[in-house]
Amino acid sequence: MRKPIHPLWGILEIAGFTGSYLSTLWFLGPKVATAQMPILAYWMLVLAGWVYIFWISTFILHRDPPDWRGWFARGLDGTRPGSFKNSWRTYAVFTAIGAILLIAYAGWQDPERLAHIPWKEAEIKFAGYLGSGLLQAAIFFGYMQNRIRAMIPLSAGRHSVWLHRFWIALATASLFAFYHLPNVPLMCLTWVSGFGWAWIYYRRPNIPLLVLSHAFLGTLLHRVVQLYMRVGPAYAHPDLHIVRTIIPGLQKLTGNLF
Asked: Which of 1, 43, 62, 252 has the most crowded CB, counting CB atoms within 10 A?
């Protein structure tokens, strides 16, 4: 059986994916939003990227261990560290702590926010996060974190696992925050939440639970704390928001929610 590709190839993959993302977001995205590029061509590029990272890289080139995946795969030793039974409490506690902090901050800033929560808009935002959060969880934690994990060796020593986990969570969180440029307040918060999710995912890889946590906290951040959430060229120009352009009917449904 052919051996997996060298783990350091992951550096080139992450760099290549990041470059592709930035060029797509900042260069191609506005062209699609202003009808200078066909939506179908944009979707073809996105689909090619998904096929590479979610299939070719993960299963063919690197052959990630089953217990690194976030889809309840059984590990080589027969256990399922990321099963719902083993994982839900950890994700629930992290989400509850984050929710309490966000609600407390919103109430401290303006008590009226808690009395006049726009529930309909919050429901739309939450539903949108179930889709966008799924992609983000799969890319940053199910893919990038695993590439980083394969590159950073696990050294010997009493605290080696904790240090290994810390550096992987730190690197993953930093990438996660970087992708939210140029929204600095959002970058700071995504670094904190990204570190927590990466720390949990290291031991309890569960994509669906991470998506729910992301959707819940993201909705609170936007509709209760009322933080400006757009990134890329849409940060200053909402009309250039690519997601609302490439999904039919989304712009009419969401307005400026995204």
From this structure: 62
pLDDT higher than 90, residue 225: yes
Q: What are phi and psi of 206, to 5 degrees?
A: -145, 100
Distance CA 30, CA 234 (A): 9
Q: Which of 197, 161, 157, 160 is nearest to 177 (CA)?
A: 197
Return the domain boundaries, the chain.
9-254
C-alpha triplet 147, 16, 36: angle, nearest 5° = 135
0.85 exceeded by pTM: yes
**H/E stretch holding 248:** none
CA distance 228 to 174: 20
Q: At what angle do helices 160-178 and 9-23 cross, to 10 degrees?
A: 20
Residue 3 has pLDDT above 80, yes or no: no
Q: Which helix (H) or strand (E) holds 54?
A: none
Report the alpha-carbon distance of residue 51 to residue 163 in Å, rounded: 32
